[in-house]
Design brief:
257 residues, mainly alpha, two-stranded antiparallel sheet
C-alpha cells in the first residue's frame, strides 16, 4: 500500500509542478511549501483532492515534535545549502534523497532527455498496474485482519493462563477477579495489545489526554476480559467465544488505520 501510494503521489507532484512551472520565479534562499491532499476509497483507488499553498502545520504536540519540526529544519537546511553550494546538487537525479525529501523533477534530466511532459502517458499504464497490485495483495493476504486476529489470540492465551493459575488455587472466582497478580498480567497484555492495534482514543489532542484515553481503554478491556473468564457476560452472551468476540470488537472496531 505504501509503495503504491508513494508512486501515485510522486506522479501527482510532477503534474502539479509542471502545471505551474512557467509561472515560477527564482528567488535565492526562499522556498514554497505545498500541502497535497489525498484520499483512498474502499476499492483502493487513490484520489488527488487538491493543493494548498498555505498548509496548516499546527497539529497535536506529538505530530509537531516528531514530524513538523524535523521537516521544517530539513527544509531550511536544504534551501540554504542549495543557495550557498548549488554545485553539490548538480548530480542529483529523479528519486535521489536529501534527508527524507525526494527529488521528483530535475531540470537537467528534462533538458538532456528533451521530453515533453504528458500527464495522460504519466498516469495511464503505471497507475493501472499499481492499482491491480494493491487489489491483488489485499485480497490474498488481508494483512491487517490477520495481524489483529493474531494479537487478540495472544492476549486471550496469556490472560487465560493467568486466570487458570489463579483458579487452581482459589475456588471462588471473585477472589481471582480482585487478584492483583491477575490484574497485573491483564494490564500488561492489554497495554501491549492496544499499542499494537493503534486503537483509536478520544482525547483532547495533547499527550496527557492521549495517555489518559489509553489507560481508560486498557482498563475497559481488562474488565471485559475478567467478566468473560468469570462467566459474567452481557445479557445474551454465552461462554468465552461470545464474550471474547465482544471484547475483540471493542478494540478492533475502534482501530484506526
Amino acid at each position: 500500500m505504501t509503495s503504491a501510494f508513494e508512486s501515485y503521489a510522486k506522479q501527482v507532484m510532477r503534474l502539479v509542478f509542471n502545471s505551474v512551472m512557467p509561472n515560477l520565479a527564482r528567488r535565492k534562499k526562499s522556498y514554497q511549501m505545498l500541502e497535497l491532499t489525498f484520499a483512498i476509497d474502499d476499492t483502493y483507488t487513490f484520489w488527488y483532492l487538491g493543493a494548498n499553498n498555505s498548509p496548516q502545520l499546527s497539529r497535536t504536540p506529538k505530530i509537531i515534535r516528531n514530524i513538523i519540526n524535523p521537516m521544517n529544519d530539513e527544509v531550511k537546511s536544504l534551501v540554504l545549502e542549495l543557495s550557498d553550494l548549488p554545485e553539490a546538487f548538480v548530480n542529483m537525479r529523479y528519486g535521489d534523497r536529501y534527508g527524507k525529501f525526494r527529488l521528483v523533477y530535475s531540470e537537467y534530466e528534462a533538458d538532456i532527455r528533451n521530453t515533453t511532459y504528458n500527464p495522460c502517458t504519466e498516469f495511464n499504464a503505471k497507475w493501472s498496474l499499481a492499482k491491480s497490485a494493491v487489489l491483488g495483495t489485499a485480497s490474498l493476504h488481508d494483512y491487517k485482519t490477520r495481524v489483529e486476529s493474531a494479537n487478540l489470540r495472544e492476549v486471550k492465551k496469556f490472560t487465560r493462563a493467568a486466570w487458570d493459575k489463579c483458579r487452581a488455587k482459589y475456588k471462588n472466582p471473585e477472589t481471582c477477579l480482585q487478584s492483583e497478580t491477575v490484574r497485573k498480567v491483564l494490564n500488561e497484555r492489554y497495554a501491549n495489545y492496544v499499542d499494537k492495534a493503534s486503537v483509536s482514543m478520544d482525547s483532547s489532542g495533547d499527550e496527557e489526554g492521549e495517555r489518559d484515553a489509553r489507560d481508560a481503554k486498557i482498563a475497559e478491556l481488562v474488565e471485559a476480559r475478567l467478566r468473560e473468564m468469570a462467566g459474567i457476560g452481557e445479557p445474551g452472551a454465552e461462554g468465552e467465544d461470545g464474550a471474547g468476540a465482544g471484547a475483540g470488537a471493542s478494540a478492533s472496531g475502534s482501530a484506526a488505520n
